[in-house]
Amino acid sequence: MLDPITSSKALERMVTKHGEKGLLRKYYRFRPARFYGGIATADAVGCNLNCAFCWVKEPRLKPWKYGEFYSPGEVASKLEEIARRGRFSKVRVSGAEPTIGREHLVELINVIDKDLLFILETNGMLIGYDESYAREFVGKNVYVRVALKGASSEEFALLTNAKPEFYDYQIKALENLEKYGISYRPALMTFSKNIQGLKERLEKVSPGLSEEIEIEELMLFPHVKKELEKKNIL
Ligand code: SF4
Is the minimum distance from the CB of 97 to ligand 1 under 6 angstroms? Predict the structure, then answer.
């Protein structure tokens, strides 16, 4: 089973490299997207989990094969241009785990137009592992959406192929964001009918947080259906 922290370190070596314009990271696409009422989106490669329901396949599973390296400034310019054309007020990095390559992400948030809200969609592993990551967002126009993979550590392991104990880092990420006063919200992908245990954990992070869970939409692409059937989830 996967150790997401060790795998993040290996992935970082693969999907980032130092250049004259800072730490470059690999992206395979830049596009407008319909979510959040319209958002400029940069799709990166590589993730530290392997979710059975993940809509991204090849660029996530073969990050060495897909994408080109871009500096934070280049990504910011592309996102600003898409946002300007679509009249969007929000930007995000999707398609992968954006927290891999911390120096790149932090610089991207620093250089992008401050009027654009940066929505950080993350599985929270690295923010839960190291609380100083959450501190990087203090004073920034950032909103963090932590996507919880399952309602328990057992479901997390089944869905992500990672060791069950790493589920705690997802909850810890919420705690760290709460501690530093960062704007955040938990999202949840679950096939469980009972999420009471999770709700109790969230209430300990912040009273009322369990009422703010956003239930994620399952996009049943053929490869997703196949993966879920393989695990007897569907
Ligand atoms: S954490 Fe997100 S990008 Fe990574 S495998 Fe899971 S759904 Fe896909």
Answer: yes
- In a domain, residue 32? The reply is yes
Q: Which CATH number does the domain housing residue 218 bear? A: 3.20.20.70
Question: Can you tell me which atom of ligand 1 is nearest the CA of 189?
Answer: 7
What pLDDT is attached to residue 213?
97
Number of domain units in the chain: 1
Residue 198, domain extent: 4-229
CA–CA dist 99, 121 (Å, integer): 9
What number is the average pLDDT over the span 136-142?
A: 98
pLDDT over 70 for what percent of the chain? 100
Q: Note whether residue 106 is domain-resident.
A: yes
- Yes or no: say if 183 and 143 are a contact pair by the CB < 8 Å rule: yes
Q: Report yes or no on 234 lying in a domain.
A: no
- List, in sequence order, the alpha helices (H) in 89-221: 102-111, 125-129, 131-135, 153-160, 167-179, 196-205
Nearest CA to ligand 1 atom 3: 96
Render pLDDT for 31-76 as a digit per residue (tens, 0 to 9): 999 999 999 999 999 999 999 999 998 999 999 999 999 999 999 9
Probe residue for ligand 1, chosen from 49, 94, 169 as the CB with the greatest number of ligand atoms within 8 Å:
49
Residue 61 included in any domain = yes
